[in-house]
Structure formats: C-alpha cells, structure tokens
Amino acid sequence: xxxxxxxxxxxxxxxxxxxxxxxxxxxxxxxxxxxxxxxxxxxxxxxxxxxxxxxxxxxxxxxxxxxxxxxxxxxxxxxxxxxxxxxxxxxxxxxxxxxxxxxxxxxxxxxxxxxxxxxxxxxxxxxxxxxxxxxxxxxxxxxxxxxxxxxxxxxxxxxxxxxxxxxxxxxxxxxxxxxxxxxxxxxxxxxxxxxxxxxxxxxxxxxxxxxxxxxxxxxxxxxxxxxxxxxxxxxxxxxxxxxxxxxxxxxxxxxxxxxxxxxxxxxxxxxxxxxxxxxxxxxxxxxxxxxxxxxxxxxxxxxxxxxxxxxxxxxxxxxxxxxxxxxxxxxxxxxxxxxxxxxxxxxxxxxxxxxxxxxxxxxxxxxxxxxxxxxxxxxxxxxxxxxxxxxxxx
Length: 394
Ligand code: AMP
Hints:
Order of helices and strands: EEEEEHEEHHEHHHEEEHHHHHEHHEEH
Strand content: 15-25%
Number of strands: 14
CATH class of the largest domain: Alpha Beta
Distance between the termini: 12 Å
Structural class: alpha/beta
CATH topology of the largest domain: Nucleotidyltransferase, domain 5
CATH superfamily of the largest domain: ATPase, nucleotide binding domain
Low-confidence stretches: none
Radius of gyration: 21 Å
Largest sheet: 8 strands, mixed
Bound molecules: adenosine monophosphate
Oligomer: single chain
C-alpha cells in the first residue's frame, strides 16, 4: 500500500488529493485558492469533515509547505516519508512527451522550452512541480500530461492543411487536451461493458467549462476536437470553438484591435457567454432557456449541434462505435443537454431513455435497450489516473 499525492496546480490555486494505492481509496482532498493574493483560502476534507482557513499564502512553495504540515498536524500522515510519490497534472507535453514520466531536471528544461505552446497552463504546473521538489526532494515527482493520450492520433488527424514547414519548424499541429479524462472515461466504459479497451470503440464527450470530444478506437485516441490550443472544437463556456480563421483579421480591422485582443475575445467572451450575452455557466442558460430566453437556448443549441456533428463524424471515422459517454460538469449533470445531443443522433440508431437519463454525477447507462449505440454517463476522475500512473512509475 502506497500513499500518492495527485496535484493540479493553477496560476493561483493548488488542488490536491491523497490516495491510497493501488486500492484507489481517497484519504483526503482539498484546495488552496487565491495563492499570492490577500486572504488565501485553504480547505481540506478528511473523515467527513471540511476545514477552511483564511490567511495570506504568498506563493506555491508556501502553499505546499502549509498543506504538508497540515497533513501532519491533522495526523493524516505521521511523517513526510509516508508519501511515496507526487503526480502532477501538466497540460502540455509538446510533441515529445507521449506518456507520463518521472520529472527530472532536463524535463523541466524541456517543459520550459515549450511554454509558448501553453502560456496560461504550463507555468503554474511547473511552479507546482518545483514547490514539491523543494520540500520533498527525495520523493519522485511524476508528470501526467493532458496531451499524452492523443499521441496515438494518426498524421491525417493531427496535421493541419497548412504549409508543412509550420509543422516542421514551429510544431504547429493538433495536440488535443483533456487526455487524462478521455483515457479514464473510455477505459472505464470498456470495463463497464465487460470488454477490454482494445475490444471497443468509444466516443467521449467531456463537456465542462472547457469541452472536447475524443474518438477512442480500440483504447487509443484517433482524433479529438481541441487542437493546437484548447480553443479549437466545440463552443464552450467562454471559448468559441471552430470559426473561420478569416474572421480574426476582419474583426481586427472593424474594432481596431490586435490579433492578441481578438484571440482574447474568442477565448474569454465567446461560447455560451458570447451567444447568450448572459452567462458562461450552463445552469444559468438552462434556467433562462426554460423561461423562454431565445439567445440562451441558441447558445445551448449551437453547442449541442456541434457536439452531435463531431460524434457523427467520429462514428464514421472509426467505422462505428460501441458507446458514447458524457462526462465533466455539464456532461455529468445537464440532463437536457444530453437529451439535446442524443436526439440529434437518431439516424445512427442512438436512443436516449428519458427516465434513465434523469441522473447526475453517477455512472449510468442512459440509452434504451434497443439503442444501436450504448450511451453512458461516467464521472471523470483525473486524480485516480494521475495516481495510477505515478504508482506505476515509482
Ligand atoms: P467543469 O468545468 O467540468 O467543472 O464544468 C463546469 C460546468 O458544469 C458549468 O457550466 C456548470 O454550470 C456545469 N454544471 C455543474 N453542475 C451542473 C448541473 N447540476 N446542471 C447543469 N450544469 C451543471
């Protein structure tokens, strides 16, 4: 039995779970928020109670040190030696890293060299790795990459039809994201169906604030909707997903803005928020749509159409699929969105059972018995994947 820490470090936050492996038993979990700001918040759940404390935490090293000392103070561990490994979620592994790795100094150098591929995400991930390395120098730090699962995509899926030199020289290609979630959910789906991952084709719809679809053929990603960055694909909470790239120059001229400013609109002012003019949160849109708000309904329908379009295209690409799985905040909770998407796929023989679909955040089969494709809800669990990979590399 080993205790593994799974860490997800953001620019001002640090989420953690301590798991007992290989049993995959959650020991404690929590989050440090507002790191580097006044009134940082440290919260931890253990043995059915939740403790929340507010004080100033100036950086991630201090956050890690407070967290580890709290584990001792609360007698969750007796000494730091009990932590066998720390697994870190890292968003971008570039075109070199195809699987989880033990992070050595040269890997940190490589990850630094590709920061321009994920300028918002990789720097805080690296800060988290450094902070744990400093405080637990003898404990192995493992990197689990969002892009890694998609390394199995064939060239025809990951290459854009742009000058080939852009790919060779500047590594412009589709990388794909949410890989840890797509892998966990598709493999769990196979298990639920009583099959091995290599015995089935699964289409995963990870629909949260960020959202992507993945075609998982015989256990491996063969295409996904996010691309060079997490902006590509289906519309999301605030991201546009695919648009005609010519719109960028057109709007730069109309609004007298830089490319960076327009890209910012596409990342932060589009999607649900942009179309509805109301909110980036699906709950707000579902409520508003129910009360007759046309633009809220439109924002939901534009996304549902695109999700269905991609599912249908992946169904054809893989030569059929055994299952479609919904996961993440919206996929696990929004019954109406699941209905909206599956109803659009009736030509493929997919049929939703409205009673079975009336469920949230649980593993459930939501298709009818005569549906040609099984449809499931499977809550994602990236932390368990991180802990599994960390354990296997120790
Ligand atoms: P995530 O990024 O996976 O945390 O997902 C966030 C999204 O999930 C937000 O748009 C939330 O509104 C949505 N969500 C969470 N709970 C519900 C719910 N009960 N019904 C509909 N959407 C939900």
